[in-house]
Hints:
Blueprint: H1 14-25, H2 32-39, H3 47-59, E1 63-66, E2 71-74, E3 87-93, E4 99-102, H4 104-118, E5 125-131, H5 134-137
Parallel strand pairs: 3-5
Antiparallel strand pairs: 1-2, 3-4
Amino acid sequence: MIKTQKHAAPELTEKQNLVMETLTKAERPLGAYSILDALRDDGFRAPLQVYRTLDQLITLGMVHRLESLNAYTVCQLDNCGTKNSQNASFVICERCGLVEELAHSNVEDTVSLLLTNFDFRPTKTAIEIRGFCAACQS
């Protein structure tokens, strides 16, 4: 189950609030078309409206895009609204759909050492580890 965010939300537009509510109520990450279907009665008519709103929420550090699922999830950590909000790490259960956001600083130090060897400066990282959660292993 996806947790709700823990940090104080900035002032959001009506569309941003609607998308955040939809993602927060969902028990799994949602694709843009699922969000559009859920919000058609609230004025969303085209996928572009959803994508723009999601991009704004990502910039605010409130939402992450899960690359491997092509879906979006609400940030679970306190520091997502900081400059490091473009860096995220997740564990994703392939059976039940559980998504847990990991504190990226724990992973970032190790990745930084590797990147130093290649003289490479990343602008965004997304680490997604797929497998089975404790409940699904038994």
